[in-house]
Specification:
Among the domains are: 19-103, no CATH class; 252-480, no CATH class. It is 52% helix and 12% strand. The chain contains 18 helices and 17 strands.
Length: 480
């Protein structure tokens, strides 16, 4: 076997795995933030404007947060990916420091050094692991949240991707999950109406399952079988899985992140619609929900098809009652009044029994979210998504969303939906979104048909903004 070796350096390149080290690094973030705030008082006294001081604090804090998350990897990196949604809640000028730091997170250090890579390969595939490869590049080709990917040539001549988990990642991630459970009670400050422990446990279960490379390989095999010869998608075949190593076919293609940065509007929309189609169709076709649709998991192949990788975050789907939930809530949103919306939300567990809340602003928000489904074509933008995220995350006590919750079993779907929505919005996707949803959901197609029949015309944005009658007979506009 020919081994292409990276340059050596001191250390192993393995993220810290001892719980005390990881906890100390995470705990240092708020301490450092408090120190910057204290220093800011002195800078303002020396004549710097409050705006200049605050921007400096934000930039330094953002960089610190994502440097720590990138170094720790595991759950911390996934947390950083979720924080990208919170960046959307900030005004564009204030969000810039966080956006700049986030772009560094996916490929942040540390990198496993060649000696550690070879040790990990031997632990998974045996001391003679090199026999399986004609060539193996021990320099990292790509990063993953709990490991890294290497380019190699299998003994039969096929170019392959070798995904190797960081040594000690199991214990590190499980330790992070315990920290998350302990800290999750703080979330009730922002969403007092939510069943935070149940949702936290659902998140922890989903993340813990991503440590199982045997399960991930089985997920990928199922997707590869179902999507074989598909005109739109390519899923690489798994060649072998041993311990904490997965070997699969290599995909040559353009990263979606590059399409976001420099692709023509037509190509960005085409790719965005393909991602949407994959997310909507995959659980219908495979019985598995793909929960991790961030840009790093998609490649545009030379023939135009979309390549998909990384199947660790997949769960059996749909659970009993989910299709009824979608049809029920959407029926109320598109064809009902405030009383129907209130009843549907309570029936499906989005409001705790007996809890009072303001249905009007929630109906307003639902109408905005339904805009992509209320007209033949829709243009997704980050500005549109930012408005929705800011409305939901607004910390004011009068924010009705604070009284809402989410059924714990819907958590994987919410994770995939929010992450996927961020990708299609960053691409600026424009296309027949409504028809794509109807194609893969008979329940939604029936709702759309009833909506069209009631109006004697295809649903459009103007109809979605029509005035509705409240249960008391008072007329209100649910979307201003």
């Amino acid at each position: 076997m020919a081994v292409r070796r990276g340059r050596g350096s001191s250390g192993s390149g393995v993220p810290p795995v001892r719980a005390v080290v990881r906890t100390a690094k995470l705990a240092g973030i708020p301490v450092a933030f408090a120190g910057r705030q204290a220093a800011g008082v002195g800078k303002r006294a020396l004549g710097k404007s409050a705006a200049e001081v605050n921007l400096d604090i934000q930039m330094r804090t953002a960089q610190h947060i994502f440097e720590v998350l990138g170094e720790l990897k595991g759950c911390a990196t996934k947390l950083g990916q979720l924080l990208s949604l919170y960046e959307l809640a900030l005004p564009p000028d204030l969000a810039q420091p966080y956006r700049a730091a986030l772009t560094q997170l996916q490929d942040s250090v540390p990198t496993m050094l060649p000696g550690t890579v070879r040790e990990a390969m031997a632990a998974a595939m045996g001391e003679s692991w090199g026999w399986y490869f004609k060539e193996f590049d021990d320099r990292r080709a790509a990063a993953a949240s709990i490991g890294q990917v290497h380019c190699a040539v299998w003994r039969d001549g096929r170019q392959v991707a070798v995904k190797v988990m960081y040594p000690g990642a199991h214990d590190a991630v499980l330790g992070d999950l315990e920290q998350l459970r302990r800290l999750s009670v703080l979330a009730t400050v922002f969403v007092p109406g939510a069943d935070v422990p149940a949702v936290t446990e659902a998140i922890c279960t989903c993340v813990a399952e991503e440590l199982d490379y045997a399960a991930e390989a089985e997920h990928q095999r199922r997707f590869a079988e179902i999507f074989a010869e598909d005109p739109d998608f390519v899923v690489p075949q798994v060649i072998t899985q041993r311990g904490d190593v997965i070997v699969s076919e290599w995909l040559n293609g353009t990263p979606v992140s590059r399409i976001m940065d420099s692709g023509a509007p037509e190509e960005r929309s085409r790719v965005g619609m393909l991602i949407l189609r994959f997310l909507l169709s995959s659980w219908v076709r495979t019985g598995l929900l793909y929960c991790d649709p961030h840009p790093g998991n998609f490649r545009v192949l030379p023939d135009g098809r979309l390549g998909v990788v990384d199947f660790g975050a997949c769960v059996p789907w749909p659970p009993a009652g989910f299709e009824d939930l979608i049809g029920d809530v959407m029926e109320a949103a598109l064809n009902g009044d405030l009383g129907d919306i209130d009843a549907a939300l309570r029936r499906n567990g989005f409001v705790e029994p007996g809890r009072p809340y303001e249905v009007e602003p929630i109906a307003h928000g639902i109408a905005v979210v339904c805009e992509p489904l209320a007209q033949p074509e829709f243009h997704f933008t980050t500005e549109w998504l930012r408005g929705r995220v800011r409305a939901v995350l607004d910390p004011r006590l009068t924010n009705a969303h604070r009284q809402m919750t989410i059924p714990a079993y819907v958590t994987p779907f919410a994770r995939g939906l929010l992450t996927g929505m961020g990708v299609v919005c960053q691409l600026g996707t424009y296309g027949p979104v409504r028809a794509e949803f109807a194609r893969w959901s008979p329940e939604l197609a029936a709702v759309f048909e009833r909506s069209d029949a009631r109006r004697d015309q295809p649903t459009d944005l103007g109809n979605a903004r029509q005035r509705r009658i409240t249960p008391t007979g008072r007329r209100i506009s649910v979307v201003s």
